[in-house]
Specification:
heterodimer, A: mainly beta, 4-stranded antiparallel sheet, 0% helix, B: 7-stranded mixed sheet
Amino acid sequence: DIQMTQSPSTLSASVGDRVTITCRANQSISTWLAWYQQKPGKAPKLLLYQASSLESGAPSRFSGSGSGTEFILTISSLQPDDFATYSCQQYYSFPLTFGGGTKVDIK
Amino acid sequence: EVQLLESGGGLVRPGGSLRLSCTASGFSFSGYAMSWVRQTPGKGLDWVASISASGDTTFYADSVKGRFTISRDNSERAVYLQVNSLRIEDTAIYYCAKVAWASGNFLDSWGQGSLVTVSS
């Protein structure tokens, strides 16, 4: 199974900050990676797929980069609506696996 | 607008069974694979099972293989998860999710979730 590791697990930031979250795979997954945003009590919401493609309707302040084993989610200027938990998911192979999540909270 | 509505969750004793259902609307259901993903409250996401658009191919997490069965009825626009031999550690919110496209098993729409609690 492909293991996905996110860092940090928690991140404290202020509105307007540039935020980066890292997701690492324990083997190469090319760019078969998605990012999700989840708010408390709600279902996850797709943000990016294929490592860097923005899902329709997702704000352009979200961007993704990386390939192989290391990936980065960047929020260019954190907005109040962005305080949430972010998870990566590899879809290179079954079983599909998720990172443990990164909670972005208010500093 | 894509909508996925889960039902069938509840409180069940260890060793018990449930059938989770997910009804879909807003897209051509028979053209898309579907998945179930679960989440223990306060924890990360855990993929459970996936089924192809036609229903002839299924995949399972090792932790549920032999106990859970995913199925679908394209005429009813529904996907199901039969969960048997439930364990305490199966307690979670179970989400139904639509697979985005055939070449990429990422999940572009999710239901609101159905809580399964396994407790004696």
